[in-house]
Amino acid sequence: MRKRIIVTGGNRGIGKEICRQLVDLGHDVVLTARSVEKGEDAAIEVGAKFRELDVSNEENIREFVHKYKDEIGELDVLINNAAIMVSDGKDVLDIDLDVVEKTVRTNVYGPWHLIQQLSPLLEKSDDGRVINISSGMGAIDDLSGNHPSYRISKTALNALTIMAHDRIGASVKINSMCPGWVRTDMGGDGASRPVEKGAETAVWLATADEIPNGKFLRDKQVISW
Ligand SMILES: NC(=O)c1ccc[n+]([C@@H]2O[C@H](COP(=O)([O-])OP(=O)(O)OC[C@H]3O[C@@H](n4cnc5c(N)ncnc54)[C@H](OP(=O)(O)O)[C@@H]3O)[C@@H](O)[C@H]2O)c1
Q: Which domains are delineated in the chain?
C-alpha cells in the first residue's frame, strides 16, 4: 500500500535518509524542514514533496497542518525526527535552564503539537502510525548527569509516546525508537553507524505489516524505557 508520510527535520542526517528510503519504496513523502532552501534541495535530491515546518514554532506548526489538511488531506504516518542537542559541556548541576527549555520546545513540544493536530487525520487512516525518533540517552535506566537538556527531552518524548498510546485511536500505532549512534552532524564522525542503518528501524516501523505498539525500539527490537 502506498502510504502518505510526513517526516520532520528532513533536510539532512537521519531524517533525509528516512525520506530517501521511503520514496524508494514507492511512498508519498512530505519532507519538512525549517529552512526552505535546504529543505527544497533535499526534497529534490530524494524525490519527496517539500513543506516548510519549524517544529519549535507553534504558529508555524498550525499553518503547516492547516495547509496540509487543505492540500493533501490524508495521512498514514508521522515521523517526528527533528531535534536539537546543545553540546555546551554543562551537566545537570550547572546547565542553563533556558537551554533545557529551548531543547524541550523542539524535541518534545514539536512532536506533541504535531500529534495533537494530526491525530484526527491519522485516526482516519486504516493503518495510522506515529514514530518518535528518541534516543537511548533518554532511557531511564541509562540516565547520567551529562547532556541533561537532550537526555530529559528524550525521556519526556518517550513518556509522550506512552501517554499518547493510551489515548490515540486504536487504529493508530505509536512507538519511540533509538537509531543507534549514527554518523550525522549530531552523532559526529566517530559514530559507529551510517545513516542507512540509522534510518532502518524508522522505515520498518513505517512500512512493515506487523509492528509493536506503544513501545521503545532499537534495531527492530523492543528495548527498556
Ligand atoms: N545521530 C545520532 O547518533 C543519534 C542518536 C540517537 C538519536 N538520534 C536522533 O535522531 C534524530 C535525527 O538526528 P540526526 O543525527 O539526523 O541529527 P542532525 O544531523 O543534527 O539533524 C537534525 C535535523 O533536525 C532539524 N531540526 C532541528 N531543529 C528543528 C526545528 N526547530 N524545526 C525543524 N527541524 C529542525 C535539523 O534542521 P536544520 O538543518 O535546520 O538545523 C536537521 O534537519 C534526532 O531526533 C536525534 O535526536 C540521533
A: 4-222 (3.40.50.720)
